[in-house]
Each structure stands twice: as structure tokens, then as C-alpha cells.
Amino acid sequence: MPSTSLLRRARSARLALCATAVAAAAAGTAPAALAAPAQVTGGDVDWSQVNAYAMGGAARTWLGYVTTLAQGTAAATAPATGAEVTPSSPKGAEAVYTFAFPVEGGSYDRAARTGTIRAKGTVTFTSALHRFAITVTDPVVTLSGATGTLAASGQGGASGQTPYSADQPLFTLDLSNATVTTVGPGTQRITGIAPALATANTAFPANYQVGAGPDRTPNTFGTFEVTVSTAIDGSIRTQRKRRAVVVSPELRLLKARGARVSLSTASSRARIARGTISGRRLTLTLKKGRTLKPGTYRIWGATNPPLTIEISR
């Protein structure tokens, strides 16, 4: 049986361990997963659909119905992009068409893969034969790990002319088989997002019921891909007179290392410094009279669009 002195030492060790954990939390060293989502600075929401409609077969997609049975078209309106799909466009399992909505804002936590991503643009499905003009405008993607939703506004329903809003989701999103890739500093790409209809008789006709989409192969409503960028974190390593060195581990992801870049504040394109990136270091020469202070900046010349960086002491 352990001695009284051994039990006392063990108890003291446990108390010291608890005190260390409490002190670490108070000092702001909680796990990174507890960090707040960062502001979204760019990206795209891509909607890819197969143009297939096999009579009596499983390969019958929404886009295939529009261009085949309904003899209609699908087209993007700026700032969304994508080639117009018409009755004469190629069809079949390999005929994939993508509409891209540029991201304009939101907030996203890259570690937890949660947040809300707002995009702009419109895709319109039109058929004079079946008398509809269905629109999907300004999609809002909300992600929560392996699940999510996509909301939008536009017109649709049984007549193809009933307005609907982003107050309720248009699709539920399944990310259980999605692939997440880091494609650059502060940027993730999520591919293989499977949509299922979340509400009936909103954008699409009433015969497309809740859950429609994954019940067919290929998915009735295609797949989504989300590319989302947020600011990276950096800190001032040294600063003497007009020379400053900023470090950020994510700068290592840049392919064009050693490239010459310029730095501006987040609110202006006016250059406040020039410099070079090497590994995780950004070496800057500031304009006369400037000093580098903590804040949000943009790095021009390293990526397109420019890279946003949050610089701390």
C-alpha cells in the first residue's frame, strides 16, 4: 500500500497540473480550434451538373431535363460565369457544365471547416416549351464539418415565376465524401459536395421532392465545389528604421518564392512597402516616414487576388 508521503506528492502533482492548465487558458493559450472564424476574402462556389436525360434510365439530371425534354437553356448572369447550355449542347455522362459564383464575403474557420460563405451571380434555367424561367441567385453556403446548406433567392415553383428567398435552404449539403485541399496560403478547396433538395416547390417544380438529388446517378442536381480564402496570420519579427521582417508559416505554401511584392493596408491599394518573400519570411522596405503596425494588410504580387495578412507584434 502506498505511503502517506507518496499519496501527498501525487496529490500535489495533480493540483500543480490543474493550476498550469488554468494558467495557460487565462494566458490565451487555448487550443486553436476555439479561435473565431476569420473574414472571407475571396473564392468561388462552383456548381457542376451533368447534361444527361436518358428516357426510362437512371441518368436523368435536372440540367438534362431542361435542355432535352423541356428544350430549354441554362445560362449565367454576371458576376457568375459559365458557358450557356442549350438543346444542341453535348449530352451524356461526360458532358459536365460548371457555373461559377465569385465569393464576396462571409466568415470561415479553416481548422474547424465551419462558417458562412456568400457568393454573387445568377444562373437561369429557361424553357418556353414548359413555360418556366427558374433562377438561382446569390448563393449562401453554410458549412458545419461534414454537413451544410445552400440558400439562395430567385423565382421558381410550379409556375416557374414564384419568388423565393434565402430565408430557408434550397439544398442540404453532404460533405462526408468531400475532399478538402489546401491550395495556397489561407485558401482551402472543398470538392465533391453532394446536394439534396431541402424544400419542395421553391426553385424547382413540385415533382422534385425533398431529398431529391443523390437518389439518382449522376446526382440530379450535380455537385458543388467551394474555394474559400481567409487572411493568414503573421507577426513582426524585427523592425529597425524602415526595414521590417514579418514571419508567417503559411507563406511557405507560395510557389513563387523570392518574388518581389508590395504591401498596402486592407482599405487602400496605395503601396506602403516593397519587399520579397523567402520561405516563411516577408522582408520589407517601408516608404519614408512609415512604420509597420499591427493590423490587416494586403500583399500584392504573390497571389491573384492579393493575399490578406493579419500582422501582430
Report on this model:
With 313 residues, the chain is mostly beta strands. 9% of the residues lie in helices and 46% in strands. It has two helices and 19 strands. The strands form two sheets. An eight-stranded antiparallel beta barrel has the order 1-3-4-6-7-9-11-12. A seven-stranded mixed beta barrel has the order 13-14-17-16-15-18-19.
Low-confidence stretches: 1-34
Give the count of structural domains: 2
What overall form do the CA principal axes indicate?
elongated
H/E series: HEHEEEEEEEEEEEEEEEEEE
In order across it, which strands form the biggest sheet?
1-3-4-6-7-9-11-12
Calculate Rg over CA atoms.
Answer: 26 Å
Number of strands: 19
Mean pLDDT rating: 88
**Strand composition percent:** over 45%
User: What structural category do the secondary elements indicate?
Assistant: mainly beta
Distance, first to last CA: 53 Å
Strand count, sense and barrel status of the largest sheet are: 8 strands, antiparallel, barrel
Residue share in helices? under 10%
Number of helices: 2
Could you write a compact summary of the structure shown?
The protein has 313 residues and is mostly beta strands. The protein has two helices and 19 strands.
Give the arrangement of secondary structure elements.
Elements: H1 4-26, E1 38-50, H2 62-67, E2 73-77, E3 96-109, E4 114-119, E5 122-127, E6 132-144, E7 147-156, E8 162-164, E9 171-174, E10 179-184, E11 187-197, E12 223-230, E13 232-240, E14 243-247, E15 260-265, E16 271-278, E17 281-286, E18 295-300, E19 307-312
